[in-house]
């Protein structure tokens, strides 16, 4: 395997979409939770409902840590967009995917305090977030070679 294949090269469409998606999620959740923990607790995710305040008392430390974690994951996604390393994509995909699956698993087993609409929206949003992690880890399709031996576009 060439160095280009492991440390650089092109980014696949699925990886690009997943990385951009994780950057957006990380920016919104991370900044909101870290900078405005009480508002995050009271109103997240705003237009879809108010999910956090339904699940226990306010804890500023916990909310800020949650925001910091999203900001750190988002920084990793931004780095992957800049560095374009397949190894980094795989590692970041594992990290986002594992977090997404564990986050989903907790919430899907703690829905009894929510309305059906809130529970449904939360399950969908968390499933999409977990799938984004998998999308980052999926390698792009190999470039096809033309008859002259150069990569086709």
In short:
The chain has 153 residues and is mostly helical.
Spans of at least 5 consecutive residues with low confidence: 1-6
Spatially, the strands of the biggest sheet line up as: 1-2
- The helix count comes to 6
How do the SSEs run, as a string of H and E?
A: HHHEEHHH
Category by helix and strand content: mainly alpha
SS elements, strand count: 2
- Whole-number radius of gyration? 18 Å
The general outline is globular
Percent helix among the residues?
Answer: 55-70%
CA-CA gap between termini: 21 Å
Residue-averaged pLDDT: 88
Percentage of β-strand residues:
under 5%
**Strand count, sense and closure of the main sheet?**
2 strands, antiparallel
Oligomer designation: single chain
Structural summary, described in words:
This protein is mostly helical. 68% of the residues lie in helices and 3% in strands. The protein contains 6 helices and 2 strands. A two-stranded antiparallel sheet has the order 1-2. Strand 1 and strand 2 form a beta hairpin. Helix 2 crosses helix 6 and helix 4 packs antiparallel against helix 5. The longest helix has 24 residues. The chain is globular and about 55 Å long. It starts with a helix and ends in a 16-residue tail after the last helix. 24% of the residues are buried. The N terminus is likely disordered.
């Amino acid at each position: 395997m060439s160095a280009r294949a492991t440390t650089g090269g092109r980014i696949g469409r699925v990886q690009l979409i997943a990385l951009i998606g994780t950057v957006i999620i990380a920016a919104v959740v991370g900044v909101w939770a870290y900078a405005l923990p009480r508002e995050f607790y009271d109103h997240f995710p705003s237009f879809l409902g108010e999910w956090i305040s339904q699940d226990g008392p306010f804890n500023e430390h916990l909310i800020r840590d949650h925001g910091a974690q999203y900001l750190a994951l988002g920084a990793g996604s931004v780095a992957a967009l800049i560095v374009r390393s397949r190894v980094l994509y795989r590692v970041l995909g594992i990290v986002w995917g594992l977090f997404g699956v564990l986050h989903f698993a907790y919430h899907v087993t703690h829905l009894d305090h929510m309305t059906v609409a809130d529970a449904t929206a939360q399950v969908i949003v968390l499933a999409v977030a977990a799938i984004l992690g998998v999308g980052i880890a999926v390698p792009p399709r190999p470039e096809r070679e033309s008859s002259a031996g150069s990569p086709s576009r």
